[in-house]
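haha ok so turns out i had the wrong file open the whole time. this is the CORRECT one, sorry everyone. sequence first:
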Amino acid sequence: MSTTTAAPAVPGHDWTPRHLLALLVANAALALGAWFVRLSDTGPVAAGFWRLSLALPVLVLLAAREPAAQRRMGPGLLALVIGAGVFFALDLAAWHFGIVRTKLGNASLFGNSGSLIVMVWGLFVARRAPRVLEIAAIAAALGGAGLLMGGSLEISHDNLVGDLFCLLGGLFYAFYIIMLNGARERLGQYSLLAVSTAASVPVMLLVAVLLGETIWPHNWTPLIALAISSQLIGQGFLIYSLRHFTPLVIGLALMTQPALTATVGWLAFGETLSALDVLGMVLLAAALMLAKAGDKPSGKA
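then structure:
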């Protein structure tokens, strides 16, 4: 429990194996989201509404257990968190709309395209040129993503609409991560997630209604699993990790999700996974390791 109140001067240098495990678990849990959306008997955007609504009471209870100082929000900070919640709702709506119109691998790859924006933003905020290992990490990540796209992802007229909506979702998700990264320095993880989720819920419901989707499910199991895995575990652990890693590492970690989701698509739906796909996964894993190796503290610890 090395950091509780004061944030480190240089984020990303106070991590422990516990923080790295949380980051990896978050991405593994988030990678299952597309599968549960496919299994639900509501509309895809409505599935996102239930993901948030079912998780919200638990998040509120967890937030109430955090110290008062970590729950206090001024008007500016509250507006930032609510804005992040709106972007998250737009991300989920666009991504879930695309999930049922393309392959799971496509959906995860394009949905996580915002990771590149997060990486570039991290270097811009640091006001420095990327280090050699960071360049190698980005190159490996792009190479791995390219192999996944060219190998197992088949862009055609049938799935182009789904791909484009997932790509739009990735853009919205980048803004969500960037906005929460600033708020995470001052708020507890569950307080932050509870407020942003509360802001997301009405937006998701409005979009689902406007699309004329089926809202009320007959089978609650996929939706409960979606809420637990994606919102409570995935988003909870991801927000917990934000203050302990640089944006570059967070962005690269998010890019491991397409590899995991492509594997789920292969096992659950028979979506093909070629040798090039496996090589792409290896490159994505190598990118994360390279980014961590290049993430060295400058100055005193």
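The chain has a mean pLDDT of 79.
again sry for the mixup
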